[in-house]
Amino acid sequence: MLSDEQEEIMEAIWCAGETNSSSLDAVKKRCVVDFSDADLKELEEKGLIIPSDDKVFLSSDGKILASAIMRRHRLAEVLVSSTLQLTNSAMEKVACEVEHRLVPEVEEAICTLLGHPEMCPDGKRIPRGKCCRKKLKVVGQVVTSLSSLKPSEKGKIAYIKPGSHSNLHQLISFGLQPGIVVAVHRTSPTFCIKFENTELALDREIVDNIYVWKIENNS
User: Fold this and answer.
1) What is the secondary structure of 185-211 as a DSSP string?
2) pTM for the full predicted model
3) Contacts of 140 (CB under 8 A, 6+ apart)
């Protein structure tokens, strides 16, 4: 179990290695936190890094751990850039906060919902996960597409998968966003939902891209 600061150091070592530059100076330039020789010594004692003169490398275990850290960070970048439309600097700041809080189940859910992206917004590779190798298309039994709900069933919006940005902005302007509880009014001939004091007809493509936590035992 690493601290947020230790994860940032591991991330910087990984990023330096991607450019074939494993010097300590290169790592420090890429790290968003200041660190000391004592911090590196602690990671070395954990068996995660291998210092060599003025360079630092990831051990086998370190590569596995750093890969998971980078995967979370770059998935977070895709998530915040596609849904929040943030600038690069703001995107990086939010992504750094998000990556430290993602549990494996949420990480896989986000990756699956985003369609298993291979690159982050700045064109760097996102390490693959189990969900990518399995080519999962749905997120377990907890989160499901709104289109799977039947009339009178309810769900709380967990995530709206980025599709058409104009559609996404339109949904948000209607008040349809994560955390809102919706009830399916009918599914044919058009898919209609009710939430708060609004009734809304949605195109099937949009319905397929809205994911909800299904609320069981509705009256």
Assistant:
1) EE-SSSEEEEETTEEEEE-HHHHHTEE
2) 0.62
3) 105, 109
